[in-house]
Specification:
With 317 residues, the protein is α/β, with parallel strands linked by helices. Helices cover 56% and strands 13% of the residues. The chain folds into two domains: 203 residues, P-loop containing nucleotide triphosphate hydrolases (Rossmann fold, 3-Layer(aba) Sandwich); 58 residues, no CATH class. The protein contains 13 helices and seven strands. Strands 3-2-4-1-5-6-7 form a seven-stranded parallel sheet, sandwiched between helices. The longest helix has 32 residues. It starts with a helix and ends with a helix. Bound molecules: guanosine-5'-triphosphate and magnesium ion (MG). The site of magnesium ion has 5 residues, from helix 4.
Length: 317
């Protein structure tokens, strides 16, 4: 175990790749590596990049990697696909877009298909980002598609959230955008080489102004790299402002709190689901329909069953 941690701290890429595959794969029981990771990380900022599918997140990360390397930073990337709607080919696409960095020892890119992973998007992301932090990567960049629940999840994992938007999504974007703007520390409007982009920039600025929120909206062209240095400067500024001692102390705590919340919700939902299919349920339906018990009673019985199961699991280790 110590040997593995030493290798990881030295940035051994094979050890890192292996650890990423093994960590979080065991279900309920935690490996000693997972415990060690929680203890040894929490100092390095994680920057989240989220936005609609195809908006240019991977292209942006690729461009940012160039500049971060010029600043002498070693950068870890976790590209997450929580929706499971993309094929392996699309995941490969992420890597292809950032492929020119694959031979660079100062960059480590991991694509994650979290479909079917217990606990969803965030556990696997959390483990991989912690591993990258332990291996000396700073910052750690996390790409995730911003749809539905994921946008809330990325907020609980990343320290800085960059929301990437782009023109050409029609009205569908409105709902997504509203949720995304909530979680933004910075907004990058990509594809500003396209004619409709400036309108989007103005619109987003107006929305922030109306809500009295001081969020910078940066116009970029990820493909050509225009605007990317300005975005990076803004990220450095925000990062510096947050790199105070208290922020660093609370970073690890906040991640663990998010981890507890997500795992608790996940485990409770699973256990309740199983309790709902138990043999007692038929009797409760009958009693409830005859007015012989209240819904509150049924709920508390189901919750008790689920809790007993969780307790048993914990006792079994
Ligand atoms: N016109 C234009 N196209 C861009 C720009 N940046 C990226 N694209 C294109 O947008 C498409 C999607 O880019 P990706 O970087 O894969 O987008 P993504 O957000 O990572 O996509 P998913 O990971 O699938 O959600 C590609 O065809 C890019 O070439 C830009 O600045 N201008
Ligand atoms: Mg991508």
């Amino acid at each position: 175990m110590n040997e593995l941690v030493n290798k990881l701290r030295q940035g051994n890429r094979r050890a890192l790749a292996r650890a990423m595959s093994s960590v979080g794969a065991t279900g309920h029981a935690e490996s000693s590596l997972e415990v060690c990771l929680r203890e040894s990380t929490g100092q390095v900022p994680w920057w989240g990049f989220t936005g609609p599918p195809g908006v240019g997140k991977s292209t942006l990360l690729d461009a940012l990697l160039v500049h971060l390397r010029e600043h002498g930073r070693r950068v870890g990337v976790v590209a997450v696909d929580p929706t499971s709607t993309r094929s392996d080919g699309a995941l490969l696409g992420d890597r292809v877009r950032m492929m020119r960095h694959a031979v660079d020892d100062g960059v480590f890119i991991r694509s994650l298909a979290t479909h079917g992973h217990h606990g969803g998007l965030s556990d696997a992301t959390l483990h991989c980002a912690r591993l990258l932090e332990l291996a000396g990567y700073d910052p750690v960049l996390i790409e995730t598609v911003g749809v539905g629940q994921n946008e809330v999840e990325i907020r609980s994992v990343a320290d800085l959230c960059v929301v990437v938007l782009g023109p050409g999504y029609g009205d569908d974007i409105q709902l997504v955008k509203a949720g995304l703007l909530e979680i933004a520390d910075v907004v990058a409007v990509n594809k500003c080489d396209l004619p409709e982009a400036q309108r989007l920039v103005n619109e987003v600025r107006q929305e922030f102004a109306a809500a009295a929120r001081d969020i910078e909206v940066v116009a970029i062209e990820a493909k050509s790299g225009n605007g990317v240095p300005e975005l990076l400067q803004r990220l450095f500024e925000l990062d510096r402002a947050r790199r105070t001692e208290t922020a660093e102390a609370s970073r690890g705590r906040r991640r663990t709190l998010g981890e507890i919340r997500r795992r608790t919700e996940f485990s409770c939902r699973q256990a309740l689901g199983r309790a709902m299919t138990g043999p007692e349920v038929e009797q409760w339906i009958t009693k409830l329909n005859r007015g012989e018990c209240s819904l509150a009673t049924v709920i508390s019985r189901l919750a008790a069953l689920a809790l007993a199961e969780l307790q048993q699991e914990a006792d079994d280790g």
